[in-house]
Amino acid sequence: MPLALYALAAGAFGIGVTEFVIMGLLIDVSKDFGVSISAAGQLISGYALGVVIGAPLLTIATSNWPRKTVLLVLMAIFTLGNLACALAPDYWTLMGARIITAFAHGTFFGVGSVVATGLVAPSKKASAIALMFTGLTIANILGVPFGTWLGQAFGWRATFWAVTIVGVLAFAVIQALVPRGEAAAEKSDLRADLAVLRRTPVLLGLATTVLGYAGVFVVFTYIAPLLTEISGFKEAAVSPILLVFGGGLIAGNLAGGRAADRRLVPAVLGSLVLLALVLATMSFAIHSQVLAVLYVGLLGAAAFATVAPLQMWVLEKAQGAGQSLASSFNIAAFNLGNAAGAWLGGAVIAHGFGLGSLTWVAALLPVAGLAVAALALRLDRRAALGAPVCVQS
Question: Which pLDDT score is estimated for 244?
């Protein structure tokens, strides 16, 4: 794999730390600014909203720029956004800085996915995307725990100072390693690019992404109370168990990339089936401490086994125009799934169904994603045969 892919992974690492580390610092932030834990939690929602809004806007605004230039500008936004977080004098300034930082997230992964596929042979495209996303998985295993420890030991601002330094280093390695020639601009017609998003296969691909990842976050958002209240672990055990989740992320991410390189459609369908099965059987496993730890790792593997296949699928459906925009929208779809899953899980608990019902509810969402993917394949077959495309109710 070209060294440029590792430069993209470095940028993904920094973005991953910024997105998730705030979860471990909510108490510190709430005390410092005198706001409730729930208000501090909105810093997570604000970031997700920034990704959903920023991904299409920045991708459109930079559509005719050389892709290397786009990546460097995005890392500059990311770095300055984290610097603003470290210096934020009040809660709302921190919220604004988080949203600005998030603007770089979707476009970086969207454009980065297109750059990554252009750096390797056609048979290695999904693996290249998976390698870039490995930076995100390593952020969850190493960056987030270290950032949480750093913030708790030296104040939450120290974490954002550290991530700012990561941003500077990522900017430097992208500048040094990503070739300008191989990451040429995509000569883009905005009207044609937006028209791609009206293609039924692209829309169905995005819907599949939202449903699959919503299932993951129905459970993962509430993994700590699941482990303590149902599995019977002490709170101190949660962080080490989440390292198992991170290990699963890396294994699933790389396996999903290889599977998608071999046969893309079976990889998409198979990863969604695996995710649904893990979530459904987790309902039983969570009552055993040994099985609970095993299934936390399996959840991580099943969750990230879907990433490269779904990203590659949307890129394939958008072929011909608007790949960067469609790719960025798919990153936004992942984040929309995160937010929807967290909301749905909270609604299940609030309506009195209990923590134990989360895994069953979660399993239904990738099943729905499978149904959407099957519909997309059916329409593809009809189009290939030249038959009129219709959807029966």
Answer: 85
Chain segment 18-57, per-residue pLDDT in tens: 887 876 677 788 888 988 766 776 787 788 888 888 877 8
Closest CA to 376 of 126, 209, 260: 209
Q: Which of 78, 83, 98 is nearest to 171 (CA)?
A: 78
Return d(Cα 52, Cα 106) in angstroms, integer. Answer: 7
User: How crowded is the C-beta side of 157, counted as CA atoms within 13 Å?
Assistant: 12
- The per-residue pLDDT for range 301-354, each reduced to its tens digit, is 998 888 878 877 777 776 655 666 777 777 778 878 877 887 788 788 878 888
pTM score, two decimals?
0.73
Whole-angstrom distance, CA of residue 310 vs CA of residue 57: 22
| Whole-number pLDDT of residue 194 | 66
Quick one: tokens of 325?
A: 């925009």
Phi and psi dihedrals of 121, rounded to 5? -65, 155
pLDDT in tens, 158-209: 999 999 999 999 899 888 888 875 444 455 566 666 666 677 777 788 888 8
The full 3-state SS of the chain, as one line of letters, equals: CCHHHHHHHHHHHHHHHHHHHHHHHHHHHHHHHCCCHHHHHHHHHHHHHHHHHHHHHHHHHCCCCCHHHHHHHHHHHHHHHHHHHHHCCCHHHHHHHHHHHHHHHHHHHHHHHHHHHHCCCHHHHHHHHHHHHHHHHHHHHHHHHHHHHHHHHHCHHHHHHHHHHHHHHHHHHHHHHCCCCCCCCCCCCHHHHHHHCCCHHHHHHHHHHHHHHHHHHHHHCCHHHHHHHHCCCCHHHHHHHHHHHHHHHHHHHHHHHHHHHHCHHHHHHHHHHHHHHHHHHHHHHCCCHHHHHHHHHHHHHHHHHCHHHHHHHHHHHCCCCCHHHHHHHHHHHHHHHHHHHHHHHHHHHHCCCCHHHHHHHHHHHHHHHHHHHHHHHHHHHHHHHCCCCCCCC
